Structures are given as structure tokens and as C-alpha cells.
Amino acid sequence: MVRGDYWEQASWHDGSLESVSWRGDIACMGKRKARATQRSGGALPQARGTPLESSVRPASNARSSRPAGAAHNEVRNRRLVRLALGVTLLAAALAPLIAISVRGDGSRGGAPARPPNGVVDRKVAELLGGIPQQGDALGRPTAPVTLQVYSDLECLTERGWVLGLLPAIVGRFVRNGRVRIEFRSFKTDTLSSTTFIHEQAAALAAGAQSRAWNFVETFYYEQGKEYTPYATERYIDGIGAQVPGLRSAQWKRRRQAAVLNEQVVDDDKTVRELHIHDTPAFMVGRTGGPMEKLTGRHIVLQFPSFSRMRYPVSLVDAEDLQKAIKRLRS
Questions:
Q1: Domains in the chain with CATH codes
Q2: What is the pLDDT of residue 7?
Q3: Average pLDDT of span 12-36
Q4: I need a surface site. Which of 7, 175, 281, 321 has the fewest CB within 10 A?
Q5: Between β-strands 179-185 and 145-151, what pairing exists: parallel, antiparallel or unpaired?
Q6: Global pTM?
Q7: CA 109, 199, 294, 15 torsion-angle sign
């Protein structure tokens, strides 16, 4: 169970939130508000970030889309809350990982520093070794169930999920061929749309060499400071350099392919049309069939004082996925 100073695990029962307990000076969220959040009718939360279709600009114009005035204050509030939640999540759930993970000089745009003794390389190899990859998918193509993960590589909350909860899912369901996981794109935390497309396309380009998930895992281990422009081309190149066996020249050429940029934009559009509002977001279904939203037991709540941020973010674990698989079989 994942716990922190300002949030703790909440449980779902019959479609409503059974309990959410805030600690310290944080208020409690009761069943009524939780049901309203989960209700399919009525007002739906807006996705964070700007839709890529309306915000993609040439690199020279990227700064012109920065918010101003009240909108800027709202973004600033989001940053403060997300940083507080992310630090709590990582400190509580991932302390051993943080202790051995060395961050790069992301805030200065430098290439990520290589951890001592190849810690990241070893962790990624232990998780993914021997599991087939095809494009953006991890796992056997014959797996009966597919889990889609809509991701922003700069999302700190998702880093907690990838490093803390994903390994059990891979060990229980992916390695034995029961589930395959697809990496999808959803812009929430990355400031620049151009940067978001570049880094997400870099992961997809690694997929052309069956190493997309190696890139993704390495990026999350080496993730820089949230809401800062650390993911420069040099930084992304540095992540690629840490992926064993990735042919750099071929990978860099593939990153420029328009089809990858279009895939990133299409993913972002798709998830917004589903009224999903934050990362990580999950869809599950029979492979090749229709997908449905998957809500996890681990709930990360925003501070209630920010009324426009009151919707919870759920993190799916192995038990959540097991229940979804049983439901799909029935």
C-alpha cells in the first residue's frame, strides 16, 4: 500500500469511493463528492494541458503559447500541487529506488548523468529482459488482454506508477503472456507541445528497434525537474544513449518521421475525447477489441482548496488488473 504525508490509498466499492483520508492540514473527501467525480452524467472534468491539435507550433513560436494573467496563476497552482504530490508519492513508495537513481542535470538541458554501477541499466534489464516488444507494445502479440497506458514522460505521478507499481504488473501478467501493454501519448505536464511531441516520438522511434519500453523506463528513471524545460534534444539523445543496442543513427532518423508525430497527436486527441483528465490514464480490453477505462485503487487527490483540481488520479496495480481480466472473461 502506498502512503504519504498528504494522501493515502483509497478503495473503490460499487463504483464509489469508499474512503479517502487526507492527513495534516488537508481536508477529507467524502463519498458524495467522490460519486460526483465518478458519475458518468453531468459535467465532466477537463483534461489538463492544451490539446496538441490546437497548440502545436514551430519551435520558434513555442513560447508564445505560455499562459498569462489568471491562467498563468492557475498553471502555477497546478505546478505547486503536482510537485507536492509527486514528492510525497516518491518518498513513500519509491525510497529505495530514489536512493539508487541518479538524476541528470535536466533543469540545465544537459544529458542525463549515468548512474554509478549501471543501476538504471540493470533495473530496466531486470524488468524487460526476455519480454518481446513490437512498436509501442510490451508483451506477446498473442496476449488475450491489452492494457493501454496514456502517458506524459515528464509526469512525476506517472514516474511513481512506472517505478513502483508497473513491475508487479509485468511480473504477474506480461511476462507470462497474459497481457500486453501499449504506450500511448497524452500531454499533461510537459510545458511545450513541441517538446512533448519530440520526446514521445523518440520513444516510438525506439519501438522500431523493439526498444520503446527500454527508452520509456530509462526516461522515467532519469526524469528531470517537473515543469522545467529540461528535455532538450541533447537530453533526449542522452536517454537514447543509455538504451542498450539502440542504433543511434537509425533511431534519430526515425524520430523525424511525420507518422510518429501524427501518432502522438492522434493519441492525445483520442484520450481527450474520452474525457480523461490526467496522467497516467488506463484503458483495458480484449486484444483487438473495444477498450474501456480502468480505474485503480490507489487514488492521488489534488488539494481540495483548488476547486478546479478536485478530481482524483488513480494508479492501477496488479490487483486492479486481475479484477479487470476476470470481468472481461465474464
A1: 73-329 (3.40.30.10)
A2: 32
A3: 32
A4: 175
A5: parallel
A6: 0.71
A7: positive
